[in-house]
Amino acid sequence: MADDGTRDRGKRPPVRSDGGAKGADDVALDPWGASTVDDYRKLFEEFGIEVFEDVLPRVPSPHYLMRRGVIFGHRDYRPVADAMAADEPFAALSGFMPTGDPHIGHKLVFDELIWHQERGGDVYGLIADLEAHAARGLSWEEIDEHTESYLLSLIALGFDPEDGTLYRQSTNREVQDLAFELGTKANFSELGAIYDFDGETEVSYMQSVLTQMADILYPQLEEPKPTVIPVGPDQDPHVRLARDLAGRMRYFGVTEAYASFELEDEERELLTLAFEHREEYASDPELPRCEEAAFWIHEGASVPDRFANETLLSTSRKLENAGKEPLRPRVRFLDRNATEEAFEALIEAIDGEKRVYEGHIDSFDLDREAAEELAREVEIEHGGYGFLPPSSIYHRFMTGLTGGKMSSSIPASHISLLDDPGDGYEKVKSATTGGRETAEKQRELGGKADECPVYELYAYLLANDDDEFATEVYDECVGGERLCGDCKEQAAELMRSFLEDHQEKREEARELLEGLDLELESDRR
Ligand code: TRP
Ligand code: SF4
Fold it and tell me: Is the CB of 214 under 6 A from ligand 1?
């Protein structure tokens, strides 16, 4: 996205979402902070979040939040989209801290979960009660009250608890055990650096991070499968850590190599290039020698300058040390956490030419993908989890109805799913708009739908699946045919009936919820 929230590339989306965010350049991704994300573009550049639009064509009949760019980013969503399209197993999971009433921001995530469930996914909704207790200091009484309310809304919006899974962190022993296990792969300095923890940070608070890591990997406990975590971008640090931990738990790592020594990623890139250029320097291109490749790097004539000096130095040093050893592409299995048995079994299972070393095995006939698959298979057969790195999708935060950010501490800025329908109506009627000072100006210049919280309500919620309606509101607004008074009246009416309907469905959901094997009242004190 460009600064103004429009797309950098490609055509204009059929329906615009909000105007994106302007203002501060700083992006703070703080899972517990009050931050809004002020510049989504930075998320792509600095944090490596991918643009959702790029994966959109692979998604079978995408959700309107995807079509409208409300879901704007992702990490590694491709495997999930592909599994969905191929009717293969996949999962979706998200968690909610029961710190207040569920509001229309939570509805985005509820809808995302429900949509994945309707597409055949194995879907989990969890109540992050341990986190609410440890990170926010809520009492168990407060937590119980909100827990029920979140679950009622999730079910009322269409989640099928018989097909999917609902749980509370505090009563899920498997999650807590997995959290403990994952804790063997993370240390204090790392958590400190990611979350700004210091010597004063309570231990339970840290433990709640590991609990979330376990939540995220929980859908894969029985078998590995592509799993998406729909969340706001503030949760990205958690997703990145979970992806790392998933890898650290694996029995084997699979990399590519060219000789017996180990390579860093940059070095591997350089050596791949050196191998491709072997005709230029090898006296026998069928059998290029390490020292010859080192010479090519020293010469530098065909080495692109994107490589850091250190990379050039370290790579050629490794090559020189290997001397006359031939360069031969291979895939390498690294022993990370494998039992001796599993390591032996992997050696057995590798077809074709292979060479066994102290903590790794080189295979000359397998390609990378086949090697990954084999490593996972052997791991699972020998009691490992074989986790796939979890994926994520990120939605934009809604602008507050009073302008600025939507905040649960400013009731007029947001709409709770429990708001009295009449109050919901009034809040929309009093919302800030992107309208001009006078009706004449509005007719002449058109409204600024891209900066209008009311338009956002249409796009994120009120227009529902009806793109035509959302587009109509947008076009009429910017074309000057729509005036804010009428527009808000229409939105306010829609909000009133949405709330009425939702609250009725919540009452109907009560029985279903009570019939579930879910502790609504905690034993904890
Ligand atoms: N930390 C999340 C929040 O602040 C809640 C949460 C706990 C969560 N476990 C999760 C979110 C797993 C996504 C996936 O709201
Ligand atoms: Fe917003 Fe509607 Fe006014 Fe346009 S007409 S600025 S969408 S309230």
Answer: no
- Counting Cα atoms < 13 Å in the Cβ hemisphere of 35 gives 18
Question: Nearest-CA neighbor of 456 among 403, 502, 392, 393?
Answer: 403
* Rounded Cα–Cα distance for residues 112 and 65 (Å): 8
Q: What is the rounded distance in angstroms from the CA atom of residue 491 to the CA atom of residue 6? A: 24
Residues in the chain, total: 525
Ligand 1 binding pocket includes 236 (Cβ within 6 Å) = no
CB 455 less than 6 A from any atom of ligand 2 = yes
Q: Which residue from 35, 97, 124 has its CB within 8 A of the most atoms of ligand 1, so it is best to mutate? A: 97
The answer to whether 394 touches 236, Cβ cutoff 8 Å, is: yes
- Considering every ligand atom, which ligand is closest to the CA of 401? 2
Pairing of strands 122-127, 91-96: parallel
Question: Which atom of ligand 2 is found nearest the CA of 477?
Answer: 4
With tokens 């797309």, the residue in question is: 7
Q: Does the beta carbon of 366 lie inside 6 Å of ligand 1?
A: no
Q: Is the CB of 20 under 6 A from ligand 2?
A: no
Rounded to 10 degrees, what is the CA torsion of 234, 401, 475, 461?
Answer: 60
**Å from CA of 447 to ligand 2 middle:** 6
Q: What is the pLDDT along the chain (525 residues), one digit of tens a residue?
A: 333 333 333 333 334 333 333 333 344 566 665 444 556 788 888 888 999 999 999 999 999 999 999 999 999 999 999 999 999 999 999 999 999 999 999 999 999 999 999 999 999 999 999 999 999 999 999 999 999 999 999 999 999 999 999 999 999 999 999 999 999 999 999 999 999 999 999 999 999 999 999 999 999 999 999 999 999 999 999 999 999 999 999 999 999 999 999 999 999 999 999 999 999 999 999 999 999 999 999 998 889 999 999 999 999 999 999 999 999 999 999 999 999 999 999 999 999 999 999 999 999 999 999 999 999 999 999 999 999 999 999 999 999 999 888 888 888 999 999 999 999 999 999 999 999 999 999 999 999 999 999 999 999 999 999 999 999 999 999 999 999 999 999 999 999 999 999 999 999 999 999 999 999 999 998
Ligand 2, atom 7, residue with closest C-alpha: 455
Structure pTM? 0.90
Which residue's alpha carbon is at the smallest distance from atom 8 of ligand 1? 95
Q: Which ligand is nearest to the CA of 446?
A: 2
What helix, strand, coil percent values describe the chain, rounded to 5? 50, 10, 40
Say if ligand 2 is within 6 A of residue 453 CB.
no
Distance 338 CA to ligand 1 centre (A): 30
Ligand nearest the Cα of residue 215 is 1
Q: Is the CB of 433 under 6 A from ligand 2?
A: yes
Q: Which ligand is nearest to the CA of 448?
A: 2
| Cα 485 to Cα 433: distance, rounded to the nearest angstrom | 10
